[in-house]
Amino acid sequence: MSDETSDTPGPKATGTSYSTGASFGAETTYGGQLGATVSSGGASFGESTPSADTAPASAPAGGNVIKDVTTQTFMAEVIEASRSGPVIVDFWAPWCGPCKQLGPIIEKAVAGARGSVTLAKMDIEENPDVARQMGIQSIPAVVAFVDGRPADAFMGAKPESEVKAFVDKLAAANPTPEMADMEAAMNEAATMAGAGDHAGAAEQYASILAREPGNLDALAGLGHCYLAVGEMAMAEEIVGKIPEEHRQDGPIAALAKAIEHGHAAAELGDIEPLAKTVESEPNNHQARFDYAIALNAAGQREEAAAQLIEIVRKDRKWNDDGARTQLVEFFETWGNADPATMSGRRALSSVLFS
């Protein structure tokens, strides 16, 4: 039976094609001011099968977190098992093209969850009863069970980023010790970066990447460390090795935007002349805007936000609300937890709603 068959008994295939053969290249040593070494280790995105380099080294064996289930084992391995932790059921069939695309993607995401989520794969051609009882009309269909009940679901093939977000949401509610350890390591790196210890933060991010090559948060963190010490080319190299679909949102998108800000600041030249212009021409909004861009590139985030908020306070409509738009872009780049973001949002709200 061909993948395009639509009149097959039972659920029909749906979804769109998703495939990328892109992968990080060979080991790259980032020297310069940071002296950190990070291996990209062949971490890949969207390949047909997860490799040993892609999955975390300490992830449980596939047989523990990924298994085939039947109508007879469904109650024990899905319903009862979900009382101890989330179980994701992938309803598929051998003739379903989109199922073949989704399968490796969701297996990779579950393997990366370090044992906090289990994947149960059910061939609905061999075991049609459960899908029929659940009213599933098309495949691939993915249903997450928690505490013995369906808790979340999606239909059709999805991009890897969406599948990972689906799995991560479930994993976050059932963290394993390794997940907690990785989160602590990421928080420590972020704390060091926030305190200005970019070399220490870079080493921590490199350590995380040694354990989990392809961790986008760690890669972005490392890129921001390079930006902080003026090594923009190194940050650009990180972004350049990541497939395009992973640059559209999330931490890599924020890193790419920060690189854009860095280029814009470089074109403005030295920061001191900009500061003097703002001081002598307080109503020169373009000069103040440029000054904010330069301040941000210099790591003076709170002062950069203050300059843009001053423009909003004096003339909200200037440059089609350009100051507020730029400030919101800064917030997205800095992240919600950054102190400059939190204080900036409060100050902006005070101006907008006063």
Entry keywords:
354 residues; 9 strands; Serine Threonine Protein Phosphatase 5, Tetratricopeptide repeat; Glutaredoxin; 2 domains; alpha/beta
Overview of this structure, please?
Helices cover 51% and strands 10% of the residues. The chain is of the alpha/beta class. It has two domains: 1-231, 3-Layer(aba) Sandwich (Glutaredoxin); 269-352, Serine Threonine Protein Phosphatase 5, Tetratricopeptide repeat, CATH 1.25.40.10. The strands form three sheets. Strands 4-6-5-8-9 form a five-stranded mixed sheet, with helices on both faces. The protein has a two-stranded parallel sheet with strand order 1-7. A two-stranded antiparallel sheet has the order 2-3. A hairpin with a 7-residue loop joins β2 and β3.
CATH class of the largest domain: Alpha Beta
Coarse shape: elongated
Specify the helix fraction band: 40-55%
Please list the strands of the largest sheet in the order they lie side by side.
4-6-5-8-9
N-to-C CA distance: 66 Å
How would you summarize what this structure contains?
This protein has 354 residues and is α/β, with parallel strands linked by helices. Helices cover 51% and strands 10% of the residues. It has two domains: 1-231, Glutaredoxin; 269-352, Tetratricopeptide repeat domain (Serine Threonine Protein Phosphatase 5, Tetratricopeptide repeat).
